[in-house]
């Protein structure tokens, strides 16, 4: 399901699934697709999943908070991540290309937690995780993928949040000089 905003800088491959998950929290609109079972069910990947109950929603929101913190939106809590990982069993499995990958050992919501953690782990190993960032514009906080060569992008899109930030700074300077 769409998170209600066009992502100007989408992550490649499976990391895009994690990016979509992190953007189920829409700071600018004040909406959260993981607030209720129905909206969470609409977002969840896979049609054969049960509607998430309160405990599953709590774990999904906690994982989202932890992964967002690891992208620069807050302070990571290693103990909480370890507890969440206890509910996300992983196993080694052959990948289509013949390599070995981590895969969920269970179905349902525990499998979703495991899948998201496995993707994040692989992204950390291959160096793409550090390109997943939180927009510096306080009203946005959208998670974007930094495609810049220098890996120094700070806004989800220059034409949206970069422009807002620069216009606000200009107005402050003008007001201060008046």
Automatic annotation (TrEMBL):
- Residue ranges crossing the lipid bilayer per the database entry: none
Gene3D superfamilies in the record: Jann2411-like domain (1.10.3300.10)
Which InterPro entries does UniProt cross-reference here?
Answer: ABATE (IPR010852), ABATE_dom_sf (IPR023286), Znf_CGNR (IPR021005)
Top-level lineage group: Bacteria
Q: Where is the Zinc finger CGNR domain?
A: 131-174
Output this protein's name: RNA-binding Zn ribbon-like protein
What organism does the UniProt record list as the source? Catenuloplanes niger
